[in-house]
Design brief:
Blueprint (H helix, E strand, L loop, with lengths): L2 H17 L2 H5 L39 H4 L7 E5 L5 H10 L4 E6 L2 H14 L4 E5 L12 E7 L8 H11 E15 L4 H5 L1 H5 L6 E2 H10 L3 E10 L4 H4 L5 H8 L4 E10 L12 H4 L11
Parallel strand pairs: 1-2, 1-4, 2-3, 4-5, 5-6
Antiparallel strand pairs: 5-8, 7-8
Helix pairs in contact: 1-5
Length: 292
């Protein structure tokens, strides 16, 4: 698959997801593969306890709770990448208050329409949704205090381009909190090349060390892991791609699929906001990972 093919696959699949029932999304792989007979949420964390949560905006597509870790303050301007039906935006809006502003960016027209409808129902006038490619965001530079994203960068072919864009749109001293899927070890070739597994968040993932290094190369500092959890793909999904022996080798091998939530800071200082120190951001940093 070339870059444009990958993008079209993602757009088509997430258009379908926007129009299907949430129960289908949460019983599948990031909402994008066929439903598993082992009905449980493969990727998602529970948002329902967070203030600002809206069930109609929760499509069950995330792999973490980046907004809960994002240290959003009253009056902040927040950008959510891959905003879907608006769930993270609405949680962020609770933290920014009416003094702040939240901008959701999504690639898919159906998701933008759904998010705008949800915002209108809630009467939120400081939450805006813009259709666009996060490799080239429809946002001016140095305008965001915080950027969040939930299980989206793994879908983007050029992750370095997105990180450069995040750096561009953040104010000096601003920061991001992103949940994403990463790998440790190599996926079987058939999983890595399959279009469905790409749109399902798995085959588009890269090695954890490479992911953290790309953040560093983009110019960010105080890079820290806020949360990490393993992801297990159920047998009835794996069996579509691997025979019994291959499944056993994969499950008993060295390959791990993980959800991580990462925080990093754009260098600089903003007088109007308290800057997060490396010590405050460093909730967890794996030794010798190069993230500290």
């Amino acid at each position: 698959m070339n870059t444009e093919n990958k993008k079209q696959i993602v757009k088509d699949k997430y258009t379908q997801i926007a129009l299907q029932d949430k129960a289908v999304n949460t019983s599948s792989c990031c909402g994008a593969t066929n439903s598993s007979s082992e009905i449980y949420n493969i990727m998602t964390d529970d948002y329902s306890h967070l203030k600002g949560y809206n069930s109609e905006a929760d499509l069950g597509l995330g792999c973490g709770l980046p907004t809960a870790f994002a240290k959003i303050e009253k009056g902040d301007t927040v950008i959510d990448l891959g905003s879907g039906a608006g769930n993270d935006c609405f949680v962020a809006r609770h933290e920014t208050g009416i003094e702040g502003k939240v901008i959701g960016i999504d690639f898919t027209e159906a998701m933008i329409a759904k998010a705008r409808q949800n915002a209108e129902k809630l009467g939120f006038h400081n939450v805006e949704f813009r259709q666009g490619d996060i490799e080239n965001m429809p946002v001016s530079e140095d305008m965001a205090d915080v950027v969040v994203s939930n299980c989206v960068l793994n879908l983007v072919p050029d992750k370095s381009a997105v990180l450069r864009e995040i750096f561009r749109v953040l104010k000096p001293g601003g920061h991001f909190s992103i949940s994403d899927i990463v790998l440790m070890g190599n996926l079987p070739e058939v999983l890595r090349e399959d279009a469905e597994m790409y749109s399902g968040c798995v085959s588009g993932a890269i090695q954890k060390a490479d992911y953290l290094n790309k953040i560093k190369e983009a110019g960010f500092e105080a890079i820290s892991l806020q949360k990490e959890k393993p992801i297990v793909i159920p047998d009835d999904i794996l069996s579509k791609y691997l025979n019994i022996q291959e499944m056993q080798a994969f499950q008993n091998g060295q390959t791990g699929i993980y959800s991580i939530t990462v925080l990093a800071i754009k260098p600089g200082h903003r007088l109007e906001k308290k800057r997060i120190s490396p010590a405050e951001s460093n909730i967890y940093c794996e030794p010798n990972s190069g993230c500290c």
